[in-house]
Amino acid sequence: MPQKTRVLICDDSALMRQVLTKLLGEDPELEVVGAASDPEKAWQMIQRLAPDVMTLDVEMPKMDGVTFLEKLMAHRPMPVVMVSSLTERGADVTMRALEAGAVDFVSKPAMDVAARTAVLGREIREKVKAAATARIRGRRPARPSAPRPRPSGLGFSATHKVIAIGASTGGTEALMEVLTDMPADSPGIVIVQHMPVGFTASFAERLNGACAINVREARNGDRVQQGRALLAPGDQHMKLQRSGATMSVTLHSTPPVNRFRPSVDVLFHSVAQQMGNNAVGVILTGMGRDGASGLVAMRNAGAHTIAQDEATCVVYGMPRAAFEAGGAERVLPLDKISRGILHALPGSRPTALTR
Questions:
Q1: Which of 132, 150, 181 is the last residue of a domain?
Q2: 194 given a catalytic annotation
């Protein structure tokens, strides 16, 4: 019988500890080995019980989840899934936790909504199991408050090109690395990162503060243009629409695809249909298969396609699926993907990059 994934819960709410213990315990592949009410007790349990994965409340008394996470990653790196509240502050703190080394996060349900609790159960079980296989790199260096110097422009001649990027687990940091290496005059970029409502706006703001390009959460009808990246909002699919030389995005609340909304496949299929060979498609770290068929469609339409390699993925699921389906023209480590994108664009001079 395969060994179970051992999980430690850290949450200051007795009710939430009870709910999470029940939800995780419903999976025969998971075993909850302990439940701590604060970081001090969690640290003692980690040393005694050696769990494989921990779920960690974002906001707790004595020491908040991010501070504890930073200390944990400095002294005993391990996979952590954050449990966040659906508030503006919760979203901002969660983004900080992902930067500090958390693998993924789930949002807390309203306790009086049984259906939401059932959804949380499926989501947290999947994310805890994915986290158990994740590559943990320990504490990450603090980000500078200002963007690193970037070339102001590489003289692109083909502004009608579009770059489409899809990511999931581990994607927030992967996208940060790719986008901070894109020049201010890069072609328009459209992005799907699996993330719920309320979190995509906070994530877009953090990207915008670090990048030479403008990054924002997409609104229906936003134009895709040079120097701009549009991030699909949580719980809405995003498609590319072309009218002559004008490109824009449309947002839709149609059913989830591959159980996701937004879905990478929805975006990639629209880019394949609307742009043909005037596009570059990139699939980054994440669990599942979302984006695989869309990347195949983009490649078949003549687009250049790139998948992140296994060694640099937090979870090698989506890139693996895309590669095995024949969608990836090139497989590159994360720190070479921005250069790979620029090489695929006519009129660029990738040697001007700092890497």
A1: 132
A2: yes
